[in-house]
Amino acid sequence: MLEKLRQYFIFGRLGVKLYVLAVITGLLSSLAITLLRLTIDFGQMALFPSGEVESYDTLPWYWLLTMPILGGLLIGLLFRGLNAEQRNTGILHVIERLSSYEGRLPWQNAVRQFIGTSIAIITGHSVGREGPGVHLGAASGSILARGLELPNNSVRILVASGSAAAIAASFNTPIAGVIFAMEVIMMEYHIASFIPVILAAVTGAVVCRLTFGDDTVFVNLATQMQSLWELPYIIFLGVIIGFLATLSLKSLQLFSGIFSHHPSWLRPTYAGILMGVFGMAVPEVMGMGYGIISSISANEIAIGSLIIILILKLLLSSACVGFGIPAGMVGPTMVVGACAGAILGYLGNSVLPEYSSSMTFYAVIGMCAMMSATLKAPLAALMAMLELTGNPEIILPGMLAIVFSSLIIHDYFKLDALFVSILRYRGLDFQNDPISQALRKISVGAAMQRNFVTLNQVISAQMAMQTLKNSPEWIIITRDRIPVVMMPASDLARAVSVKDMGENTDIDLMQIPGTRRDVHKISLHTSLFEAFQALNEHHVEALYVSRQNAPMIERIYGILTREMIEAHYQLPKSVTK
């Protein structure tokens, strides 16, 4: 039954089938995010004497000091003895697996992500749950796709669908979830991906609203721009945010290199020591920090506190992630941006109160500009701004701030997006050029030639003539049941026609005149990008596409040549060398 279901999804055009799988992925992803949020909330309510979420300021000083240290130690022990690949988590892990493994995410890493993130946030580390949520959502899509043995291009779409559902369920922002998946995870826009990703994001948002209500994660962010005279000041805000985003990336690189020669399982404890020391002085910097944004919108926080929180939040979140805490930086960077925006809003109100908008207005602009600059995701930030405020008029000033913050970090300082920078900093080969993108969208099943036959190296003339009656285009020649080369069927037809052979005459297919191409095996589930890499890596001229239908039983479904790949996307000569 399962094998029939797999073949139903593998062969033919997916179309509506993929849409159904995207909805299932969205459901699985949003349930994982819901479980993560509830685990963190109930864990904090059970641990804190006040019984409230993120009420670190109600804890005695010795709790504030010891909780992060114990949390870091527990996380270190959880990841002890694992290699670097087994320790990888978060959005970075998802992008890396999409780049090098076509979206195949191990379930074990996702389980460690869930446990590690829960411990980190409950015990007060300055990290966010959005990155881990994206990992869990992407893993949901990957595990579903791999269970059905879908082609790798479909695996990628379901990974993006799970990521979109995760962001939609985290913030209750389905549009931002879709754009985030395209800009940050897939790093491309493709019409074939939009519908399943949209369906998954809608599913995630529905589950979020059924569980947590209709409000977005940040409430009371309704804002209005006072005057067009504020636009130059908003440009200045964008420039400041660009510098802060640059500092954030540089800080992360710095902390990633500090004590890198120490045992990896000890480094989260170092983050815990930092969090405990500074958390005693400023408890507001502990945890995700979303309460800070609520305090800004309610005008319940002083400007001096905002400055201290901004500095500490930026450095501590970089330290936590750099030292190996398995959680994200999306939430903390948004809090830093909100603090910076609120500070500039306060200064504007102090100088020109009649022309200046509220602190909340500038906090929202700063929050989304910081998100855009750090992640290189301007459209996702704009959509998040629109959905969080419900005010389309914020788009105009938001666009200005986002443009100038991006100009500073990406054009002036020449820094790439947060996760791509870390991948390249670690020496990983990240390929996301247009050719690679195009080839990853197409499975080998859509491009392979199926008009072939498989023959032993030595056959009778009768078998040769019987084979040629079916007009195959290619012949795969096997030796001891292992394919070794392939040749055009026309070469066999020519050899049979020029020789006067009896029916029982043996023909050695390796000896007759003809063009033979060395072959190598490739899985039916791979993409054309992987096929192109296999041709170059194994120095062969063709591939035979196979799949294991049962233990020890493998079936060949088609053959693939470089010309067939180029027919789907014409590769420049410099690439095909």
Automatic annotation (TrEMBL):
Record carries keyword Signal: no
Keywords: Chloride, Chloride channel, Ion channel, Ion transport, Membrane, Transmembrane, Transmembrane helix, Transport
Location(s), subcellular: Membrane
Transmembrane stretches, start-end: 20-40, 60-79, 191-212, 232-249, 270-290, 296-316, 323-347, 359-382, 394-413
Listed GO MF terms: chloride channel activity
InterPro entries, A to Z: CBS_dom_sf, Cl-channel_core, ClC, ClC-type_chloride_channel
Coiled coil (UniProt feature): none
Domain of life, per lineage: Bacteria
Protein's UniProt keywords contain Ribonucleoprotein: no
Topology in membrane: Multi-pass membrane protein
CDD domains: Voltage_gated_ClC
One Pfam family it belongs to: Voltage_CLC
GO cellular component: chloride channel complex
Record protein name field: H+/Cl-antiporter ClcA
Species: Methylophaga sulfidovorans
